[in-house]
Design a protein that fits this description.
Elements (H helix, E strand, L loop, with lengths): L4 H6 L15 E2 L10 H14 L9 H20 L8 E4 L2 H14 L10 E5 L8 H10 L2 E5 L12 H4 L4 E7 L11 H10 L3 E5 L22 E5 L10 E5 L1 H5 L11 E4 L4 E3 L13 H17 L1 H20 L4 E4 L10 E6 L4 H10 L2 E2 L1 E3 L4 H6 L5 E5 L6 H17 L4
Parallel strand pairs: 1-13, 3-4, 3-5, 5-6, 6-7
Antiparallel strand pairs: 2-8, 7-8, 9-10, 11-12, 12-15, 14-15
Helix pairs in contact: 2-9, 3-9, 4-5, 10-13
Length: 418
Amino acid sequence: MLPELDVIRKDFPILERTLADGRPLVYLDSANTSQKPQVVIDTMVDHLERHNANISRAMHLLGAESTEAFENGRDRVASFIGAPSREEVIFTKNASEALNLVANTLAWKGPHQLGEGDEVVITEMEHHSNIVPWQLVTERTGATLRWFGLTDEGELDLSDIDDLLTERTKVVALTWVSNMLGTINPIAEITRRAHQVGALVVVDASQAVPQLPVDLQSFDEESRPDFLAFTGHKVVGPTGVGVLWGRREALESLPPFLGGGEMIETVRMESSTYAPIPHRFEAGTPPIVEVVGLGAAVDYLDHVGMEAIHRHEQAITGYALEGLAGVPGLTVLGPLDPTRRGGAVSFELAGVHPHDVATVLDTRGLAVRAGHHCARPAHARFGVQSSVRMSSYLYTTPAEIDALVEGLHFTRDYFKVS
């Protein structure tokens, strides 16, 4: 566990909230959205109160201050993920838009344009945001969609990797850490194999960046993905901002995604020319204060230390798995080894619908998620319609896990499950 856990929790004002009956809030839904430290809140309020202006357009002091703060956010994010160049960091409204940007532009033009006979490979454990864009693009281009299946333990079945990755494979898109199963995938290994057949690799890192140390420069050239997407609100930052990192040559090969102000070089009535990256993909007024808040968020995580956060997540997840194992009728979906998974743990409780489990837990101050977690194919693979998901983060305590386990025993008694 993080040695300064009590100090860290004081940084998050919402964790001091008590409910109507005096119970403390137990927030176990961080894979859905993380809570925000005071420094992020204060940074965003300060920007709105003292520096608010549009960026890159206004020729006055506030405009210069706002532009500097926005671009400083880009520098901070680039440093946080070890991007080789700050220009490779593109701001979007969320990870879904980042993934759609890549999928859509690959359908339009360029050296990697998809067409009939080409194949896109995804996995059965993807979040819907890394399934639906590829379904749409293959339908529109005549390319074929294929996917890696899952083992009974909830890991990628790589036994048919040689059949899936061939000279027809143009894109491999996969999650680094599953939002449902918690599985940590071997990104470097799969990227290396994909590059051997000339495919681009797109990584959904929405669950990885919050809890794993991510350093893109630590990958060698063959094992470094071509694109990586994540979202601000899962890294103790605000909603409304996402990140797409891409290799410079890969980004420069893509046509513009959205047209508008700031993404242009010259506009004439007959045609336009476009700005270099990153601005080519940031049309219109961007999420300025959200980027400023995201910069403060990744600074906060850097201060705590991503290695320390990762160790804490493994320890608290291991503690949770031990506690859940003692609840009769409870089945965890995904790996049972905390070193092979992230902090999102989905489970079934025999005899009780997941929505009922979540509702009863909510009456006891415990916030968990119930449903298919935007990962319906993964649920179908295990023959379940939905599940309950608890997810921890750097502020989660063993006492909160104890409260969850106690709440699940109470739920069984409430529904008189034998």
